[in-house]
Amino acid sequence: MRFTQQGHIDVSVSTNTIRIVDTGVEYSTQTESEHGLGLLIVERLCNGYGWSVSIGDNPHRTGCLVELTR
Asked: Any idea where the domains of the chain sit in the sequence?
């Protein structure tokens, strides 16, 4: 929510997938980005429970897409 000052965040949950799409800033792999620690924690939790994490840019507009899949 911190990086989406305007626009929206959509969260959808199904049996095997949690999908979060926002219209904030695009995902960056740069180490000076502030995305890292929270997503690192999510990735470690998912790995511990057998889920996979996919992180990238929102395919439809500026923003980020995160999918957690079992």
From this structure: 9-69
